[in-house]
Design brief:
GO terms for molecular function: succinyl-CoA:(R)-benzylsuccinate CoA-transferase activity. InterPro entries: CoA-transferase_III, CoA-Trfase_fam_III, CoA-Trfase_III_dom3_sf, CoA-Trfase_III_dom_1_sf. Belongs to the CoA-transferase III family. α1 (about 20-30) packs across α9. The chain is built from 19 helices and eleven strands. It folds into two domains: about 10-215 and about 340-400, Rossmann fold, CATH 3.40.50.10540; about 245-330, formyl-coa transferase, domain 3. It has helices spanning about 20-30, 65-70, 85-95, 110, 115-120, 145-155, 155-160, 175, 180-200, 210-215, 215-225, 260-270, 285-290, 290-300, 305-315, 325-330, 335, 380-385, 390-400, and strands at about 10-15, 35-40, 75-80, 100, 125-130, 200-205, 245, 255-260, 320, 340-345, 350-355. The model has no long low-confidence stretch (mean pLDDT about 95).
Length: about 400
Amino acid sequence: MTAHAGALEGVRVIDFCWVGAGSFATKILADHGADVVKIESSAKVDGLRLSPPFAGRLPGVNRSGYFADRNSSKRSMALNLKSEDGRRLALELIRDADVVANNFTPGVMERFGLGPEVALGINPRIVYLSMSMQGSGGPHRHHIGYGSTMAAIAGLHDLTGESSRDPIGTGTNYPDHIPNPTHAAIAVLAAVRHSRRSGHGQAIDIAQVEPMVSALGAAILQSSLSGRPQHRRGNHHPTAAPHNVYRCAGEDRWIAIATMTDDHWSHLVVELGLRPPVAWASATERKAAEAELDGLVADAVARRDAVQLARALNARGVPAGVVSTAADLVDDPQLIAREHWQHLEHPEMGRTTYASPPFQLSATPGRLSRPAPLLGEHTIEAAEQFLGIGSDEAAELVRCGVLR
């Protein structure tokens, strides 16, 4: 990948976020050139640092692959916000920054004396991002939760799973990985642009439940227009069939097939050698006979290799894809061809695989400038660069527990 200045070079972010969504939002900024300084504490470690998987299966605050993935290209500064001097130094960091970000429950930053009114008072051009679960207002503003909680509250769980079984969610904290960090990053970019043009900063209040609600637009529209709520239907489609995931040959190997048109269906029939009733040429009839149809397709693919079958169906223009495992993705030739995977040397974890930014800019492509930081790795460096603190003063602040 050719070296270019990142699109956000010159933007400084003071990052108080931890765990998933907030850290991913600031990672997006960091991977595109922003100087993101992650404020941490050895007294209360970011929960992701304690989350598996760990490199070499050896737990440690600097060995979490989950943390590494969410914090590439950042620096880590250990600062004790429970001390008066620590809070004073945090304010000095904010004074000259472009963005400050947090994903705490409302009131936490205010109790530290670092709320948006204080920040904007000392730095009128600052963009102040807050992304709590329910936002800063409303009767539920003090509720706490994680991705699975938000997905349930926002209605996602009711839409995922088989109709005859209990809600199962998505198997991962979907709100933390897609809607919340990306909405937050977009909001920050818009506010930074406004600040650069006008000189006026602003506070951004994201209730993380709300981006999830916006992701369910079609289901909400159906309910509001027809009065009939949409419920979970597994892998089935409202009108198309067959539209499901089917087991192939081998251990736990599956293929997803989506026949959205009559042409898709006719090509699927030829490839699988099916002998369906003539009436199934109609999409309406196929949908009406979906259970029988699924059984027919399942029998036909059970002895086929998933990769080869997907390739054959794609060649015929039938939408199909292998249900990939994480191991499949690391070796995926398409992702490799697009240089999606990057390998960085981490001080404790060694050579580590990282995902590149999920979009490519031709003139200012994002790139991972450094592996995830060790806890407090850049404390002294940041104190000297941003606060003008000399080595002797820094050593004294470390001794007093202000920098830790």
